[in-house]
Amino acid sequence: MQIFSENLLANQVAIVTGGGTGIGKQIAKTLGESGAKVVIAGRRKEVLEETRNEFVKEGIETHAISIDIRVPEQVQQLVDFTVGSFGKVDILVNNAGGQFPKKSEELTPNGWNAVIHNNLNGTFYVTQAVAKQMIKQGTGGAITNILVSFLHRGAPGIAHSVAARNGVYGMMRTLALEWAKYNIRINSIGPGLFVTEGMKEEMASSAGPHFIEQVTQDVPLGRTGRLQELGWLVTYLSCPAAEYMTGEFIVIDGGNSLGRGLTFVPY
Ligand SMILES: CCCCCCCCCCC/C=C/C(=O)SCCNC(=O)CCNC(=O)[C@H](O)C(C)(C)COP(=O)(O)OP(=O)(O)OC[C@H]1O[C@@H](n2cnc3c(N)ncnc32)[C@H](O)[C@@H]1OP(=O)(O)O
Ligand SMILES: NC(=O)C1=CN([C@@H]2O[C@H](COP(=O)(O)OP(=O)(O)OC[C@H]3O[C@@H](n4cnc5c(N)ncnc54)[C@H](OP(=O)(O)O)[C@@H]3O)[C@@H](O)[C@H]2O)C=CC1
């Protein structure tokens, strides 16, 4: 279903980290279907090339680059590659990230650091490098971070990830203030459960075969999210309709983070 005009983001250039798979792939596709030129970035070259070929067949102007967001020099290569390919960058989606479930008392310092480094440091490196380019261009920009729905509530088994995402949240609020004068807006999205291969692999070892059904039972809207719904939300945040929004965190989880609700109802 095409919700937005196919010219909405014409002449806009978007970078999507982790754009070769899952949520990032769908976000990049939806931005492309609204007219944006897209650069997808991740570590696995073959996966990126496969996605790029798919997009190009669909008429989306796409380039792909293999980089690790944890390595500042490679992050700069991503920005240079984007500017070299499409002349500028207007939209950034910080989607690359993830974690592994582990009881906190069993987490090793390396395990903790690995997740903090990827989700917090990596996101900062990309955000800073892209924003410097946007400041140089002088035409503003829209940055969206993909975080998690349980940011403020907490989630047993993934303390490292919740800590890192809250770090990104704090960073976002501060950068929204610092960069408003450049008309660079920065917002975040908190997805609930969206079925992707990455999510299934991550949960496979610890959560058991019925994980998805169990989580879905707690979702008032009674289903998992559709990837397209995240694509639309990022498109909205990246387009002129959201020009007055910055520093915000939007949860999209079918009501899951409301919990089970009150047991007492007055009717
Ligand atoms: C959870 C309850 C929620 C209830 C309701 C929820 C509704 C929404 C649920 C949605 C949850 C979110 C889903 C997603 O995020 S989907 C995304 C899926 N993709 C991923 O998560 C990718 C995960 N992987 C990575 O990002 C990287 O592999 C990672 C950063 C984790 C590690 O990379 P790195 O290359 O640095 O790792 P090393 O191999 O060098 O290891 C470093 C140390 O980390 C330990 N480690 C790494 N992986 C694991 C693992 N799978 N299990 C245990 N430990 C791991 C590793 O052992 C090293 O430590 P040591 O040296 O001490 O051994
Ligand atoms: N699916 C879900 O229910 C939810 C997902 N999220 C978050 O959404 C994002 C996407 O998740 P999803 O699509 O499900 O899972 P994926 O595992 O498919 O997505 C993770 C993507 O990030 C890339 N990536 C990870 N680390 C790096 C790195 N250091 N440098 C460059 N790229 C990297 C991966 O590519 P590669 O391995 O090739 O580098 C991959 O494309 C993640 O941040 C996840 O935590 C949040 C809430 C719920």
TrEMBL record:
Its EC number is 1.3.1.38. The keyword NADP applies. Pathway: Lipid metabolism. Keywords: Fatty acid biosynthesis, Fatty acid metabolism, Lipid biosynthesis, Lipid metabolism, NADP, Oxidoreductase, Peroxisome, Phosphoprotein. Signal peptide: none annotated. It comes from the Bacteria. Its main location: other. GO terms for molecular function: trans-2-enoyl-CoA reductase (NADPH) activity. It is an enzyme of class 1 (oxidoreductase). SUPFAM superfamilies: NAD(P)-binding Rossmann-fold domains. InterPro entries: NAD(P)-bd_dom_sf, Peroxisomal_t2-enoyl-CoA_red, SDR_fam. It catalyses: (2E)-dodecenoyl-CoA + NADPH + H(+) = dodecanoyl-CoA + NADP(+); (2E)-decenoyl-CoA + NADPH + H(+) = decanoyl-CoA + NADP(+); a (2E)-enoyl-CoA + NADPH + H(+) = a 2,3-saturated acyl-CoA + NADP(+); (2E)-hexenoyl-CoA + NADPH + H(+) = hexanoyl-CoA + NADP(+). The keyword rRNA processing does not apply. Interacts with PEX5, probably required to target it into peroxisomes. Participates in chain elongation of fatty acids. Catalyzes the reduction of trans-2-enoyl-CoAs of varying chain lengths from 6:1 to 16:1, having maximum activity with 10:1 CoA. Has no 2,4-dienoyl-CoA reductase activity. This is Peroxisomal trans-2-enoyl-CoA reductase. It comes from Brevibacillus centrosporus.
